[in-house]
Amino acid sequence: MTVVLKWDGECTFSFADGVNALPEKTCGSFETRLVHLLLFSTLYMFTDILLLFHHSPPEHPSLDPRQISFELMLMAQQDDAVLGPLVGLKRLRQLPSSTNPSILQRLKTLERKSFAADEVFDFDDRVAKQRNLEILVAFHGHPTSSSIAAYAVYVTSNRRLLLHKICVSPSFRRKRIGTALMERLIGDAKHRSCRAIDLWVDEANDAARSLYSRHGFLLRDSVQDYYSPGRNE
């Protein structure tokens, strides 16, 4: 079964959103929301202090999940979020146009390694220039010479965001880079005043469904044999 998921922007709260991010119809009075905000800010400040005083830093401190989660809250809506010195998130249209052919070719390579032939997205220059389409790329190093750690492709229309595809390179999985992409994508949806985010996912893809569930997506519908006979959405 293919699962259709929906994220309702009005019911999501993050530390960066501030007091008014919690709707009164679900979260109570202004005073209640203020208390929630203070509790969240105290929690993240305390977490940051613990990280500073931790006597044995992780093997890859720039990719420590707790640190990344904290930084994402603060940087989700910035144009150039950087997850430590190793991985940076960039929208393709932010980069010099002269770098597009090389980046698109690397995206094609990762796409073909990750998806079946009939599910491959056509990363060509014409598609990349569509006004309502965004390609968000996580680079390992400098964009012009680095490998691509992950990417997401999404379209915005009529105050809705459609997540067409998200992919993390096998060598960069389990480092919360997928979380980084989702946080940025949700931040972009809020910045564009989108009412909701829609996506489709193979019901057998447990990792992807877990990622979406953690970010507040809910099951809306299912489609039998969407990808192929026996592969439902």
UniProtKB/TrEMBL annotation:
<dbReference type="InterPro" id="IPR016181">
    <property type="entry name" value="Acyl_CoA_acyltransferase"/>
</dbReference>
<dbReference type="InterPro" id="IPR000182">
    <property type="entry name" value="GNAT_dom"/>
</dbReference>
<feature type="domain" description="N-acetyltransferase">
    <location>
        <begin position="90"/>
        <end position="233"/>
    </location>
</feature>
<dbReference type="GO" id="GO:0016747">
    <property type="term" value="F:acyltransferase activity, transferring groups other than amino-acyl groups"/>
</dbReference>
<dbReference type="Pfam" id="PF00583">
    <property type="entry name" value="Acetyltransf_1"/>
</dbReference>
<protein>
    <recommendedName>
        <fullName>N-acetyltransferase domain-containing protein</fullName>
    </recommendedName>
</protein>
